[in-house]
Amino acid sequence: MKEIILGTALEKTQIVIIILLCVSVVILVTAIIIYILTKKNKKDRKVSKSSNVEIVNNTRYTDTKKDGVSNIKYTPGDNLLTLGVTYTISKEGPLLPGKYTIYTAVETQKRFNLRVNGIVREYNSETIIVLAENDTVNPVNCNIILR
User: Domain extents for the chain?
Assistant: First the structure.
């Protein structure tokens, strides 16, 4: 009779140990997955130090003002759009989807025409526009800087 009671006690202890090991393995695997995902998200972020541009998952985010004043000069990371050339916004291309501030490349000209998706509209320098995947942009009367 004592052997039967001792045998069931050992089996219960072994079952509890197996359950605790399984729970520990599940927690460890979850922690590893979370670590890998956060590492991947940090790799997807590229930051351009020169013009406050941040690229997350091939989408562009920008802060266009420094100390409350707009910075109009052309800097690395800006996109210069040439007069008469049509550009398509693409996650694989040089112009990524996202928020841009548009500037005229001619200092004396504050207003300019820009064709976005086939519609020509007059814009002021320092206007913020949002461009989505497959949008087209075409400067009509002067070169334009997208920041």
Answer: 2-45, 58-146
